[in-house]
Write a structure and sequence with these properties.
Length: 353
């Protein structure tokens, strides 16, 4: 049988560029080269597309910076780009070449411009199929506030929050009066814990909001939930099912921030999680409701906090393209079910051929 021409897109314009590079290294290594003709496509931090061999060169050039927040400078991201900003036209932001017909795209992008539906809408427009959810599910899932509104409407409990817009006035004292302290401050559309802070004082809150606004125009401030953090991996096989519940225990930070996620020894994953049966059952039900409410396809991860004292579960967020290194949470959950990383990727790809 002829090989499947699989375009793997990575990088991107978001603050999660380096996370994508970390994911794609593991993905390309695990893909069966007897089944797939892998076509690398790198998207730089300015949105230039480097195709085929040029995409592979980009990954090799920036490989050492994979997984390091801000590790790829804007200058390094553009070093292989020939076309300057003022020379961009509708077509020449593509560099390099692809000689084969693309059978399927595997997007390994996290955050805006890759996981928020914009790439998927473009692929829909040109008629190229891809793995993971459609554009609307990605767009909703990426927007933390809107995702919470939708899952809450489907009966999934959420933490109290306040949404701020960069161009509107806000009152710190009123926020503290409504939510108390500490609070969690998050960019409204970003993942991988980039830009997230726990604010314990009014001064912390002001600084955290300012920092979060440097990533996007909306900031969500959430009531702090004291408890244990869990993630549920949902995969269509072909019916949506929870592969596992994993407890996330930060070891070097107060919460599961970027450092705890990606530093060696930064956190501990307990899979399967040690939970009372009734709590685990409720969490799985909430995860599947969230997956369906957002309209996800193929794979997603839903994160929860469990307030053990009050026995209350809270939806935190949904990840429509979870981290995809062999040691990431979704592949770990698959491994628990006896699915190695290569088989895991095969199933995701096979669902779309």
């Amino acid at each position: 049988m002829s090989k499947i021409n699989l375009a793997v897109i990575f990088g991107g314009k978001s603050g999660e560029h380096e996370v994508s590079l970390s994911s794609v290294k593991g993905v390309i290594k695990a893909l069966d080269k007897e089944k797939y003709n892998i076509i690398p496509i790198a998207i730089t931090k300015k949105g230039n597309w480097l195709l085929g061999e040029k995409g592979q060169e980009y990954l090799a050039f920036n490989s050492a910076s994979a997984g390091k927040e801000g590790g790829v400078s804007l200058e390094d991201s553009q070093k292989l780009v020939s076309v300057k900003d003022q020379e961009k036209t509708l077509v020449n932001f593509f560099e390099g070449s692809i000689n084969e017909k693309i059978d399927l795209v595997l997007p390994i992008l996290h955050g805006p411009y890759g996981e928020d539906g914009r790439l998927q809408g473009f692929l829909d427009t040109v008629g190229i199929p891809y793995v993971f959810s459609g554009h609307l599910a990605h767009a909703i899932g990426m927007n933390k506030a809107k995702a919470k509104i939708i899952v809450k409407n489907f009966g999934v409990p959420v933490a109290k929050d306040i949404l701020l817009n960069k161009f509107d006035a806000f009152d710190l004292d009123q926020i503290i009066s409504d939510l108390g302290l500490p609070v969690m401050v998050k960019p409204g559309e970003l993942g991988s814990s980039v830009g997230i802070a726990k604010a314990k004082t009014k001064e912390d809150l002001a600084q955290a909001i300012q920092n979060a606004f440097s990533y996007c125009n909306e900031v969500i401030i959430e009531q702090f939930i004291s408890g244990r953090e869990f993630t549920t991996t949902i995969m269509e096989r072909p019916k949506a099912e929870v592969l596992a519940i994993t407890e996330i225990i930060p070891l070097i930070s107060e919460f599961y921030d970027f450092k705890a996620k990606y530093a060696d020894g930064g956190s501990k994953h307990v899979c399967p999680a040690d939970l009372p049966e009734a709590v685990a059952q409720s969490m799985e039900e909430y995860a599947l409701k969230s997956f369906k409410a957002i309209g996800c396809k193929d794979l997603a991860r839903v994160d929860f906090m469990w307030d053990e004292k009050n026995n209350q579960i809270y939806f935190i967020e949904i990840n429509t393209i979870p981290g995809m290194t062999p040691m990431s949470l979704a592949p770990e959950a698959a491994k628990f079910r006896g699915i190695n990383f290569g088989q895991f990727l095969d199933e995701l790809i096979g669902n779309n051929l």
